[in-house]
Amino acid sequence: MAARSKPEGGNGGRPSEFALIEDLFAPLAAGAPGAYGLKDDAALFSPSPDHETVLTVDAMVAGVHFLPDDPPETVARKLLRVNLSDLAAKGATPRGYLLVTAWRAETSVDWMRGFAAGLMEDQNLFGISLWGGDTVTTTGPMTLSLTAIGEVAAGQMIRRGGARPGDDIYVTGTVGDAALGLSVLRGALDMPDTADAAHLVRRYREPEPRTAFGPKLCGVAHAALDVSDGLMADLGHICEVSGTGARINMESVPLSRAARAALARDPRLVEAVAGGGDDYEILFAAPPDRASKIGAIAAESGISATRIGTMTEQSDGVSAIDGAGNKIALKQLGYRHF
Amino acid sequence: MAARSKPEGGNGGRPSEFALIEDLFAPLAAGAPGAYGLKDDAALFSPSPDHETVLTVDAMVAGVHFLPDDPPETVARKLLRVNLSDLAAKGATPRGYLLVTAWRAETSVDWMRGFAAGLMEDQNLFGISLWGGDTVTTTGPMTLSLTAIGEVAAGQMIRRGGARPGDDIYVTGTVGDAALGLSVLRGALDMPDTADAAHLVRRYREPEPRTAFGPKLCGVAHAALDVSDGLMADLGHICEVSGTGARINMESVPLSRAARAALARDPRLVEAVAGGGDDYEILFAAPPDRASKIGAIAAESGISATRIGTMTEQSDGVSAIDGAGNKIALKQLGYRHF
User: Fold this and answer.
1) A199 and A176 in contact (C-beta within 8 Å)?
2) Can you tell me which residues bind ATP (chains A, B) (predicted)?
3) Is pLDDT at A73 greater than 70 in this prediction?
4) How far is B7 from A331, CA to CA, in rounded Å?
5) A295-329 tens-digit pLDDT
6) Which chain B residue has its CA at the smallest distance from A60's CA?
7) Using an 8 Å Cβ cutoff, are B115 and B77 in contact?
8) Which of A51, A106, A221, A315 is deepest in the core (most CB within 10 A)?
């Protein structure tokens, strides 16, 4: 873990970055022998026997991927979880992570402590540790990035490509909550029920990576990814790489009670459900004869999986239909961050 | 490789980020099967048999770690090389990397193309590939981070800890050039000889990671790191973790012709040599009976290694002496980025 400016730099009266790293981050590395207490230049990792290493990285910018007044604990958890979600969708089990923080000079030590506390809480939840990182200062918006490292049985990583016409399309959990939650936070969506509003906001701020579900899809799903760009856009990604088309039945798309309430009041919000991002659910394709296996995985992991459509020939394109079988025109096919 | 904003976002008339990734970055992943052409959510890696994975990450902020008007090719190479330098100092051989770019809306496509060209050039030089990454936009200074992944024979990674009193202290190449080069770029150091000035600037902009040297130190050096914070500060890091002191003979510290010329004109620049950072040479400790082995490694790799001091008892502290054996007072023990 390198702090790229020196103690004598002062940092406007806050503790030196070396001391901060020691204080805030070293406890996050305590569980990982290969992190060397963040006192070396690199981390060491070996996956379990007959496993391969899976790596992914995602960055978040204040004002783009999170709101500047989001609590630091949830910013930390979101940063970690969006990456764990990528691993889960590939069938990988998370092991550790590297962290880069570009904080502002005026970022308070309290904020940093909250950030570290959020990481610690999730580390315990997901059984992972901090292995290393870098700390820099920016005059621009806070920018955070995280490299997550996991492992998967050799040859078993679930790819985006691999879906075949005739495969069932599934999604875990519920879709659209995060996009609606962002609308609530921006004051663009009025939710009279405060519990519903809180549910949507939490889903936006703290995605739930399906780490208990994804690894069980190895050898079961033909293709998978996590829904970050939006249901239809991400389905398009699978189709593009797999060389298939897809047809989604919008009435099958699983919605939370809060999302159903929002849609009941304004049916146009279906576009936020189909096109909104940040769900971090696993979207996957599997042959119909694996339906009972998928049901068993859902039961074991306590995470629902709903069949929402069918993979088709590439020439059919990617479409959403309503209950009567009519195509729905969805303007907002991909999610644009605010 | 995820682009975190959508094509319809427009991005001020420049090609969409998806298209840019395709265009600029996909060729950088061509050599790595586990990168899946940057069309998946994660990369897959297995080290060679009986090897472990070594991971490191470093970030650079425009105006802090590089100058906003540095050529994009050299910014790319510096970003890659500072990370390869960490791997080399650990005895690891680089294999691939993940890249996060936080570009500004006004960052030109030409700049990005230059950046990618710089990466490609160095990939070919170091035998590595891009495995994945993330692209975001910031309203602040451009921020770049890179996770480098390498491999080392199991159990052979060279740590910071491990130095013992009586070990010889060595450094590869020459020290101080980068700090002096930064002074040249900032107009703070006048070098009448333009070749000398160009040498110093190049050493600042394009560090030379000692990838041909570092892996040969496995089983030879007791401890190593790369000089990024400054010679004395980094020596202090080794001593801190190893529980030793150290004494450097400043007259033994290897200097380039350009650095010697600068010091001849202004002897006070010795502080930039001892305290300046960004050298990215390997500083290491090894027992005296390995001197001939180290000489052979230097000859094989074509990279010089100079004995500059001795590890001592911790109670002796970390000091620099002149040719007469007198302690030199060095104010600037650590490097502060501009």
Assistant:
1) no
2) 133-134, 160, 228
3) yes
4) 13
5) 999 999 999 999 999 999 999 999 999 889 898 87
6) B136
7) no
8) A221
Q: By the 8 A CB rule, do B85 and B227 touch?
A: no
Q: What domains, with CATH codes, occur in chain B?
A: 2-153 (3.30.1330.10), 168-321 (3.90.650.10)
Question: Residue for token digits 């394709």?
Answer: A285
Q: Verify whether the Cβ–Cβ distance B143 to A133 is below 8 Å.
A: no
Extended beta strands in chain A, E state: 2-3, 43-45, 51-61, 93-103, 129-137, 143-153, 168-172, 223-226, 244-249, 282-286, 305-313, 318-321
Under an 8 A CB cutoff, do B4 and A138 touch?
Answer: no
Helix (H, G, I), strand (E, B) or coil at B309: strand
Contact yes or no for B336 and A63 at CB 8 A: no
Burial of residue B13, with CB atoms counted within 10 A of its CB: 0-12 exposed, 13-18 middle, 19 or more buried? exposed
Q: How many CB atoms lie within 10 A of CB B288?
A: 10
Q: Could you tell me whether strands A244-249 and A305-313 are parallel, antiparallel, or unpaired per DSSP bridges? A: antiparallel
Q: How many residues does chain B have?
A: 338
DSSP character string of A295-328: HHHHHHHT--EEEEEEEEEGGG-EEEE-TTSPBP
Torsion sign over Cα B194, B198, B200, B204 = positive
A133 labeled part of a ligand binding site? yes
Among B8, B33, B211, B21, CA closest to B103: B21
Helical pair B177-185 and B257-265, crossing angle rounded to 10 deg: 70
- Partner-chain residue, chosen from A2, A133, A137, that has the shortest CB–CB distance to B64: A137
CB contact at 8 A, A272 and A183: yes
Residue type, B14: R
ipTM for the predicted complex: 0.91
